[in-house]
Amino acid sequence: MNQSFYIGAVGASQQLKRLNIHGDNIANLNTMGFKANRSDFTALLYQDHRGVEDDLPMGVGARLLMTSKNNAQGPVEDFGRILDYMIEGDGFFALVDLATGQVTYTRNGAFVRSGREVPNGEVDENGEPITELTYFLGDDEGRFVLSDVGGLIEVPDGDSIDPLPVGIFDYINYDGMTQIDDTRYLPVDKNGNLIYGTGKLLQGVVEGSNADLAEEYTKVIESQRAYGLALKMVQTSDEIETTINGLRT
Question: pTM score > 0.85 for this model?
């Protein structure tokens, strides 16, 4: 089979992956704290063929090497919610799932009051601890925001709330962080040790998605065109092979 057939087939499959990446960015244009993904390609194996004077490199296609994050800060969004928080600069909010103990990190500061039953220090007639509903700062999905000293943050009653001690945490290197969902991440070994973030905490505003519609739409069109050209290469290679086989008969 002609080598161009395989180059076209690989190119089509990789452009489809690129299309999915930028389509996901567009789908998250309104997701608070979302960081757009970028697609990084690399050339596949090259072969050297003898030329008149020098060896001539002959490529055999390209593939999607990795996706990387655009960690640029997103726009400031003001929805008039007092429990919204934003980090201006570097750093993450930390969210803890008390059921599993897992701590994840996010730039999405759209927080809410989350209720949890906690002991009040008294016991009933059976010696069982008496609990009462207490409200803490959470993410509306069962996880709680950690303070600057690593504890839960109790939210007082009332419409006017002073800035809460929301913690800002950071890593030296963001490369390779595991993405749990659209806005939450888990660190890996190469990210280094957890440190205090240097970003500034803002109350009453939240960070919007940093995906740019014009840029993402342009890349979607590029991927669609490249995908079509790759399939055309496959079709043409097949027609050439068919013609050659017909001449043999």
Answer: no
